[in-house]
């Protein structure tokens, strides 16, 4: 079956009423649970899993996938309106989305998030259709050394996204790297900083960290400063629609973010997180006035949102062809397939064309539905900002607790989110960027594991990073970026055109 | 599917109602059962548990709720079961690790297997296959052992973590074959198979279902299996025992078992053992288990206790040797 035949066949398959209904169910559910911070797709898919016993494998996959990418749309809502990201990707969206909401441009931020999410998804689908085979080979070609080098590039590139001074950015990345050390070391099996707590053996709960640092810290900050009631003037349709200037600013970031996301999404592991951060860093770098970032730059919402949605689509490539789930939610979906006696593998495309092409077609249908569903909802979401804080904040805290508990069902994590929230408040007082901490936390363990694995495999020879073409590319890119940043910093301090900071 | 669910719920309710007069005579079970699983929803141990708990609920006339408490290789599941114990309706399923090797791998698990855990029955066992890339020159166990023995750490193998079944099995194999291989820990079989196909590492012991898709696509080859008999899911793979100089009794299997807190009423254990053993005799259940790589292996509580003891000793000896290196 050629690509076009496959795609046509898939569209026909996905439009059957018996399949379409599950696609609709999935995306609607996904976009609603995505709005609930931290609860997200994980809990929804866990709950839906028993239901999938009673429907066909294709319908099950299409429905669960709908929840997955649908939640990516919803995830932006809580980050933009309440600074409550349930994942590191949405934390990036909060960086500029939340300041936009604070300055009365919540509608524009949400519109930017939805439109770029849609555009990113469509890009991801196009890449998936045209390059699925190539992406699979790329994923197998990536060895430990290549992953380590790639993550280092990610860390270097994204370390520049903080709005504060370089030293503060480094401090936060380092703190994140340190927190990432908590738990069982993959290579040696040694338990680090667990203090005998079994709950810490798998590390600190990522959802607890994200919601503590952002959401809970924000709530504490606002309670202490009750005059900070959000700008809650009535927002009409006009204020919701972006101006011509906004649209012009969104185009390129959306395209660049989508391209980054499509590529990194296909690499299992942190593709989605990495591409969000990289997209944000890239937009800041190419922007004429980078100082706008962190204070409500629409590019900072459009790029990363496009990236993480594109990544959510191409992440299905390694999941289905190599059986490597990119994240715990993908692992759940694999589980649903296994329940139906389907082991994903290289033959999936040939053995089950209706599943592969049906899924791809359902991505297109589902994303279109999501756009139609979400645009009118923007008005309703924005109304959340009119809820008085005395009602909103207790509700937020309840949702945070529910969300954190739903991950593993451990009360330990609820205590953890409270402690992290307090720490996050102190960091915010000192104007440290929690997003960088999160990035260090996510990438740190992956860099360490892959670096040491690469050295183990090479029997201790560090030349492995210069002998593999992929690795050497990333190493050179990291070096170039570091030199460029240092040069810029040098010029900024000595040059005549010292930019004003706003 | 909603219709089916409601129908099932209705049957459960109906059964629960008919059970009411009996429960008046204080006959177990008087309330829903909770079964703790130390792995996330959708994982192989979770699917296995649900294959058992669905028919169990029908037979007991009470809902059986699976509680996923993932973490620490299944140890958190056992801990959470013990923390919620005391009402006679709390149980758990677990893989072998938390009951055999965890005490050696962790500073403290917080429970004593002999004292705190009452075995109910083994549910199923799974062997591991030794797989290599199809580009490799090793075509059978003989040539594999020869290649591995060429020099110290001539071959590198992947496992799903320090102290995992895949790691310990490979070490047991190396020891019996008189070779020494380089261990590269990963976190999932998918990572191991990708690394084998990418040519980074040479081999790995893994669940048959993890290797099969890549064997069928011609990317990988299976050289041997660790069970005593050929395994129905991969019947063509020769058993390792007795080949290439390995002892005839070479055997390494993972297992999954149903357990209860230590102070559970022996009558309840007996009842559960009877029900689960009968469930496992159903060919349809056996087929479902096999599809996810497990072979039904019901037995008595005493047999399970015996298995815990022998495996603790066997893997303990392997861990001793690994730690001594």
TrEMBL record, chain A:
The keyword Transmembrane helix applies. InterPro entries: DUF112_TM (IPR002823). The keyword Membrane applies. The chain crosses the membrane at residues 7-29, 35-55, 67-86, 106-132, 144-163, 169-188, 200-220, 259-282, 329-349, 355-384, 391-408, 414-447, 468-490. Keywords: Membrane, Transmembrane, Transmembrane helix. Pfam families: TctA (PF01970). It comes from Palleronia abyssalis. This is DUF112 domain-containing protein. PANTHER family: TRICARBOXYLIC TRANSPORT PROTEIN (PTHR35342). Residues 20-439 form the DUF112 domain.
From TrEMBL, chain B:
It comes from the Bacteria. The keyword Glycoprotein does not apply. CDD domains: PBP2_Bug_TTT. Keywords: Signal. Residues 1-24 form the signal peptide. InterPro entries: BUG (IPR005064), Bug_dom1 (IPR042100). Transmembrane segments: none annotated. Belongs to the UPF0065 (bug) family. This is Tripartite tricarboxylate transporter family receptor. It comes from Palleronia abyssalis.
